[in-house]
Amino acid sequence: MSRLIVGPFNRVEGDLEVTLDCADGVVRAAHVNAPMYRGFEQILQGKLAHDALVLVPRICGICSVSQSVAGARALADLAGVVPPPNGQHAINLMLATENLADHLTHFYAFFMPDFCRPVYAERPWHSEAQRRFLPGHGEQTRVALAARQRAFTLLGTMGGKWPHTQAIEPGGSTRAIDAAERVRLRAKLREWRAFLEQHLFADALERINAIDSLDALWRWYARQPEAGDLRFFLTLARDTGLADLGAGPGRCLSYGTYPQPDGTLALPAGVWQMQPGGAQVLPLQTDCISEDASRSWLESGRAGEPVARHPWNGLTRPAPDKAEAYTWNKAPRWAGQVVETGALARQLVAGQPLLCEVVAQHGCTVLTRVLARALELAQVLPQMERWLQALRPGEAFCIPAPLPEAGQGMGLTEAARGSLGHWVVLQQGRIVNYQIVAPTSWNFSPRNAAGVPGALEQALVGAPVRPGEDTPVAVQHIVRSFDPCMVCTVH
Amino acid sequence: MNMLWLQAGGCGGCSMSLLCADTPDFHAHLRTADIELLWHPSLSLASGAEVLELLQRCADGRQPLDALCIEGSLLRGPNGTGRFHVLAGTGVPMIDWVRRLAARARHVVAVGSCAAWGGVTAAGDNPTDACGLQYEDERPGGLLGAEFRSASGLPVINIAGCPTHPSWVLDTLAALAADELTAADLDTLARPRFYADQLVHHGCTRNEYYEFKASAEKPSDLGCLMEHMGCKGTQVHADCNIRLWNGEGSCTRGGYACIACTEPGFQEPGHAFDQTPKFAGIPIGLPTDMPKAWFIALASLSKSATPKRVRDNAVADHLVQKPAQRRTRIK
Fold first, then answer.
1. Which residues of A91-103 are buried (b: 16+ CB within 10 A; e: fewer)?
2. What is the pTM of this model?
3. Phi, psi at residue B50, to the nearest 5°?
């Protein structure tokens, strides 16, 4: 057995170090370390409740709106208010802008560049991968960065700026959109759609959404295998075996998001799990969520207390000298189980037929994680067009949301990279506990008290390590397939 | 000019903001400004061992380093060890890497308020003992010390903001690359004067409401945000309402107060962020270069002269009163 310590990992948001125990050319065990701690949950203690909305977006520069939405929903829960329809649609548009733009950033700037590595120099597609995705030079990555910049102008108008807008309030959005502005925003959405249809899919979004089986996917592919970046990804995926690389725990969590005025969620909540004889979706029970700091440089609480704590009484106090610890991240579990979260989880919980079929064959792997993000782009952008159209200029975007002096509130949402929850407890108008469980806290969880590895730690087992590799390329594909955000993970 | 960019104890938002630069081709923009990226955490191919090799060469001088950009606060805790942030793969605290690299760099740039002053990471009781490169809030010092000068002779250049505006960063780097940024181009807090000599108030679309002290009372109101909603735009150094954000945005255009994110210590204002602190009903934070008595006199005068249109619109989220239309030619 040999040991590799891999880091600094770039093209993940924040700091990541992975320790790999390897033998016979494969990874036998992995330990994932989030090596930076800032202490937001400590910082928030004693703060006025509403001040959290200045601090929490600043947990993360890439999931900033998601953090705002989770914080605002936790305060809305405390206040017992629901934003008016205009406020809901405006916040959904801002959240979707961030989530979809993050998907673009991930695909073009974070994930695909690894195929430009010299290790693939002999593959027939290598020079084309470089032409498209080589950092700093790749034509498609450059066009995508420009499209991303344009996409975020939606947030300039609706939220003042990105990241770190303060426009998201418990009672709605601070920026009402008038009819003329809606015309401008519609043009921006059309521009975004055009980018996706020309560059990523080389096809209409509606045609992508109609692909409902693996067979249909490969027929769509075969018609024009060279056209668009998604088909090119499928070419690479087939050649490099991404369909079977990096299988997760086979259990996926989505809190659901994009709440609608009729009380439904545009993307549903639930826990998907593989079962003998087929998959099933369980209802999300938030009281089943716990965090365990057994292997974290954090205190576990007093002796005799359960090691796995629900966020309502979660604890975040550094214990930097803890011997058995190897990360600042805690180990979140749902009903005691390891889960994976992200676009793939959302699509499986929603029963997206193509992904359900691919996952039934291959499991939750690098291929399905990347494919799920692309399909979500095609699925959500048309919904954004509908939400924009549903705005009623002249009606309220924000209602008052007076906060109680004491109580507790929960705010759940979906960031690009998965389920994000905030739990806040107030006394005398001040925060006495604020717990954040972020998407990559789930995905990059360490072992818990029972020694069960987290989702990435499981997914890395079996990854091939080529002779002489010190930063194995397969490990990089698997790590980046989760679109990790380390600054959220440990906040 | 080559550039090495490292992320310390921050959120990565200044990098994400940088990628929102108003250009059709970000990388071409850098190249034409003669900025060569040695490594950036989001933008480079190199990972793991390849990066360590580069950092080592920069730290021992084999690789000349023109601009060291640091994003995020420097985490000195626990107990001065820096172990709250160990650079992945190295076992060495980030603060030690930054000290070594800063000693070699021609220019050292603090990207964002965290790297400049400590920022949000230093909020509350500052659990990680976070500070800026050369400041701790408004106090000179920080990680590198008040006397630090990089090889160019300049102090750490503080492109403060939470996040920073992408073109504050790009314009600063372009000026450095062209050897056009001197000590005289920095304000007393070492921020580039091209943006710090403006106030957020300049160009604010709510200025008519400000003139008449027609004030917003709740989130989404159109009125001036200074009297009740905590806005500090008349005191805060930045050109946010002239150099707009993400197309046509700014905080005040987005419907919320300027919280002074380019200023040291903004993370702990000593009052609720969304409420204006007052004494005897009058905001404490008045425009810095205006006699207080005059401000109060003018405010009460303009309040009594407020047109109904301005007064009504100030407390609505859309225009409920339109400007009067006259049939004659406007004189």
1. bbbbbbbbbbbbb
2. 0.98
3. -60, -35
The DSSP secondary-structure symbol of A341 reads E
pLDDT band of residue B326 (cuts 50, 70, 90) is confident
CA distance A272 to A251: 6
Inter-chain CB proximity B247 and A42 less than 8 Å: no
Residues 38-77 of A with CB under 8 A from B: 38-39, 42-48, 50-51, 53-55, 58-62, 64
Terminal alpha carbon distance of chain B: 55
Structure tokens at B1: 């000019």
For residue A472, is the peptide bond before it cis, meaning its omega torsion is within 30 degrees of 0?
A: no
pLDDT digit string (tens) for A450-472?
999 999 999 999 999 999 999 99
CATH code, residues B2-196: 3.40.50.700
- Mutation choice for A interface testing from B55, B128, B317 by most A CBs within 10 A: B317
Question: Over the stretch B289-301, which tens digit does the pLDDT of each residue have?
Answer: 888 889 889 999 9
Pick the CATH number of A2-489 from 3.40.50.450, 3.40.50.11890, 1.10.645.10, 2.40.50.100: 1.10.645.10
- By CA distance, what is B40's nearest residue in A? A10
Taking residue A46's Cβ as centre, other Cβ atoms within 10 Å add up to 11
Burial class of residue B51 (count of CB atoms within 10 Å of its CB; 0-12, 13-18, 19+)? buried
Half-sphere exposure of B28 (CA within 13 A, CB side): 11
Q: Which helix or strand (DSSP H or E) is residue A225 part of?
A: none
- ipTM of the prediction greater than 0.90, yes or no: yes
Number of neighbours of residue B194 by Cβ within 10 angstroms = 16
Assess if CATH 1.10.10.350 describes domain B198-317. Answer: no
